[in-house]
């Protein structure tokens, strides 16, 4: 019998976490039929508690996994962690949060990686939030219309979940048909942005940025030193800084911002596949 829902998210600046929790809670409140009783909901923050060892999500669990699109791809740390996750035809919802430019191949990759690890992906959706680097893009997202769309997606997902979990006997549960998600698995490594946050004069050298960095790119002894070969520009260090001292700087950032704000000013609405 399905008895728990686990939400997993990698969310350097917090939007994907909010989306994942919203979806998980919306689904949990709709799971009240005889086969799904006393559903417990828990979360794994893959940035603060990265998976170091293999872990299995059994057939009694619903998984909701959320990642941000980074240059249209699944962020590198997530690829490595997904390889440690194992499903047993575990019913799964895949989410990508992106900044109104393009989610590219990220949703397709996430879906394929999860299926390859033994998860049965029931539904997948791409949702828009304010762009974490170029903040004028999608500045007020998610808005009321987005939140309504999240509810719609959760309603459709829950109906499908009811159909597939309508029996307590795992062997009798059908496997969802493949989803026709846009994208492919690129052979190239994801593009790296030439933007790397650095601290200003308000830095107290507390080390919080170095501790949170998922790539170990910040020098622990001198936080001004960033290994640009490792940094994926994820923004976790910016958000973790208690002094607000860390950010992207320089003419490259300003110039790209101006160009991209124009290019991606047209609203994109959430898209989903089920
Ligand atoms: C390194 C990096 C690459 C990004 N690439 C894209 C992209 O390709 N398309 C897009 O629409 N948004 C892109 N974004 C914006 C994020 O996907 C978006 O801001 C997302 O909400 C961030 O999630 P978080 O708040 O959970 O960190 C990128 C952000 C970063 C930091
Ligand atoms: S140094 Fe780069 S990879 Fe590390 S947290 Fe900051 S932006 Fe992310
Ligand atoms: S978190 Fe902020 S204040 Fe602390 S070391 Fe990093 S940049 Fe400096």
TrEMBL record:
Keywords from the UniProt entry: Iron, Iron-sulfur, Metal-binding
Domain of life of the native organism: Bacteria
Start and end residues of each 4Fe-4S ferredoxin-type domain: 193-223, 225-251
Residue runs in coiled coils: none
One GO MF term: iron-sulfur cluster binding
InterPro entries, sorted: 4Fe4S_Fe-S-bd, 4Fe4S_Fe_S_CS, Flavoprotein-like_sf
Tagged with keyword Iron: yes
Pfam families: Fer4_7 (PF12838)
The protein's name: 4Fe-4S dicluster domain-containing protein
Organism of this sequence: Mogibacterium kristiansenii
